[in-house]
Design goal:
Family: Belongs to the peptidase M15D family.
Helix content: 10-25%
Function: Catalyzes hydrolysis of the D-alanyl-D-alanine dipeptide.
Largest sheet: 5 strands, mixed
Number of helices: 5
Pfam family, one: Peptidase_M15
Distance between the termini: 15 Å
Organism: Paenibacillus helianthi
Radius of gyration: 16 Å
Oligomer: single chain
Structural class: alpha+beta
Shape: globular
Protein name: D-alanyl-D-alanine dipeptidase
Order of helices and strands: EHEEHEHHEHEE
Length: 210
């Protein structure tokens, strides 16, 4: 299904699929398969939008990894502030735990901010943070990272002792490619990287993903 783009992005932003067409795009917050269990406010299309500076750096990452037989799978890029506010509202509804088993089985959802898994002010909203993983270029199958995207728990910490040597190696392949091209990893989420030289380091945007 071809998604029609609105194409009225603020200056300095681009659609990632136009820069990196080889990547897979699974925009979880457009779907119900995310930790809230419903489409998140501000996601009107399953598109990845990113700062142009970040997109160029990510294209270099993609090119490097392609030579090793990998493609990127992108889960989330730019995120509107209204989506972050939606997460805050969701966290306050203690009765809504329909996605607990899949995404945060051992944690109380009210503590997800305090534990650093969700932020009330996010680098995603500045267009400088990306959530992604690797897939094999030949098959499109995901590389085994030891825990799924957006799983809130110690197994998602980059240096966890809960995963195998092979899974650690896979995480390192992604991390090394990202850091080489100017991204900073986040120790509690192996899939989360922020551009060190962000073009909008203190600006939080609120335009829809559409």
């Amino acid at each position: 299904m071809k998604v029609l783009k609105k194409n009225s992005l603020p200056e300095g932003f681009v659609y990632l699929d136009e820069m990196i067409p080889a990547a897979q795009y699974e925009i979880r917050y457009f779907s119900e398969n995310n930790f809230t269990g419903s489409r998140v406010d501000g996601y009107k299309a399953p598109l990845a939008i990113f700062s142009q500076v970040g997109a160029k750096a990510l294209k270099a990452v993609s090119d490097d990894l392609a030579r090793k037989g990998y493609i990127l799978r992108i889960y989330d890029a730019y995120r509107p502030q209204k989506a972050v506010d939606d997460f805050v509202s969701w966290s306050k509804d203690a009765a809504d735990i329909k996605m607990k088993e899949q995404y945060y089985p051992k944690l109380d959802k009210r503590n997800l901010f305090k534990l650093g898994f969700i932020a009330k002010k996010s680098g995603h909203t500045r267009g400088g943070t990306i959530d992604l993983t690797l897939a094999y270029a030949k098959t499109g199958v995901l590389v085994d990272m030891g825990s799924p995207y957006d799983f809130f728990g110690e197994i998602s910490y980059y240096n966890t002792s809960l995963i195998s040597k092979t899974q650690h190696t896979n995480r390192k392949i992604l991390k090394d490619a990202m850091t080489k091209h100017g991204f900073k990893p986040y120790s509690k989420e192996w899939w989360h990287f922020t551009l060190i030289k962000e073009p909008f380091p203190s600006k939080y945007f609120n335009f829809d993903v559409e």
